[in-house]
Design brief:
The chain is globular and about 45 Å long. Helix 1 (about 15-25) packs across helix 3. The chain has helices spanning about 15-25, 45-50, 50-70, 95-100, 135-150, 165-170, 170-190, 225-229; strands at about 1-5, 30-35, 70-75, 80, 85-90, 105, 110-115, 130, 160-165, 195-200, 205, 210-215, 215-225. Strands 1-2-3-6-9-10 form a 6-stranded parallel β-sheet. The chain has a 3-stranded mixed β-sheet with strand order 11-12-13. The chain has a two-stranded antiparallel sheet with strand order 4-5. The chain is α/β, with parallel strands linked by helices. The longest helix has 19 residues, at about 135-150.
Length: about 230
């Protein structure tokens, strides 16, 4: 099945959203992730509108899709569970969006260098990369599903739309071992709570991919240890 991610201006009028829905209808079954990572600050839609407006927009667009393109399933990629607060990030603001969407989702990396390629990952060099505890990421994602079930009274598929470790932070072999640990836990978990995940990504100019782009030939990739794992 096709999964599309669409970032869109939350002030767009219904007539344009209906046009998008009609364009998608002929393709049949697909998944649409609308304004992903919407509790963040880094995408343009977060600079155009406050969080309530973004949440209300998701509800509005999701209802239009159900009417005009019913085979398109909507994915809400919002905040994750916060252990200290005992709730999902901004769960009050996005409650109706959590109820109206077809699939709950989050993005979480085991390690990530979001300053790439401008900065280099070195201890004490700044706040542009991170390496997380794999078990904590696993438990946080699972707790997100449990909390969403609790506050909505519903049970929906839960997916991780972006999951990976960044070899630019850890090196290629630790990157692979971190993902192996996550998958071993998932395989042994009797709850089978995770419906799907998207590995981000296949080939990368940095060190996120199963392959990295060959600097001598951009048409081919260099296999990383993650691919064999």
């Amino acid at each position: 099945d096709v999964v599309l991610t669409l970032t869109i201006d939350p002030t767009l009028e219904d007539k344009y959203l209906i046009g998008i829905a009609r364009d998608l209808r002929p393709y049949g079954r697909m998944y649409l992730r609308i304004n992903h990572e919407c509790t963040g600050t880094w995408f343009c839609f977060n600079r155009r509108a406050d969080y309530k407006t973004i949440a209300d927009f998701f509800v509005r667009f999701a209802k239009i899709l159900k009417e005009y393109a019913p085979n398109v399933k909507t994915i809400l990629c919002a905040g994750m569970f916060m252990k200290e607060e005992g709730k999902v990030e901004m769960e009050d603001i996005f409650l109706e969006a959590h109820k109206v969407c077809d699939i709950w989702s989050g993005d979480h990396y085991l390690s990530l260098h979001w300053g790439w390629p401008v900065t280099v990952c070195e201890k004490g060099s700044g706040n542009d990369f991170a390496c997380y505890d794999v078990d904590e990421v696993y438990d946080q994602a699972k707790a997100t599903l449990h909390r969403l079930r609790e506050i909505t009274g519903m049970d929906k598929p839960f997916i991780l739309s972006e999951l990976n470790g960044d070899g630019d932070v850890t090196g290629a072999f630790v990157q692979s071992n971190m993902m192996r640990h996550f998958m071993n836990r998932l395989e042994k978990d009797p709850e089978h709570w995770l419906t799907a995940f998207t590995f981000y990504q296949f080939r990368d100019d940095g060190r996120l991919g199963l392959e990295i782009t060959d600097p001598n030939n951009s048409d081919v990739g260099i296999e990383q240890p993650m691919l064999a794992m």
